[in-house]
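Translate sequence into structure tokens.
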Amino acid sequence: MSEQQSLSTDDAIRVEHLEPSCDMNVTPMIDVLLVLLIIFMAALPLTQKGVDINLPAETRAANQSQPDTSQIVLEYTADRRLSVNKQAVTLRELTSRLRTIYEARQDKTMFIAAAGSLRYGEIIDVIDAAKGVGVEKVGIVTEGMRQAAGVQGGGGN
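Result follows.
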């Protein structure tokens, strides 16, 4: 009888091993997700494109001195009119005008006096065009600088 009991115990053990498990093994899925997370974290800095802009700070010196006439100032009004040093220019003519100006200049700095109502994308398009023709530094004209220089606010500021 002890043999029967031992056989039945062995059979019970075998039966336990033959029953399917209802638990899902999620370890491989978690491994794949972690690998994807690492890949996206490593690739994200490579996809970011931007323009480094130093925001202008108001200074009292801007109000006290006359503006430098040798500086190139690009005005971009709320009605989307462009002018380079108070000479009207279209968006299509902008790159050729800036190229002729900056080919002979050593100082590759340009200032933008843009209306506050313009979208950032429109201003970035102008900055990209300027960078494409050799402008190295772009400055943003503040309201105090506009008043000192006598430049119109461009509306919407």
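Note: The domain at 60-149 is CATH 3.30.420.270 (Nucleotidyltransferase; domain 5).
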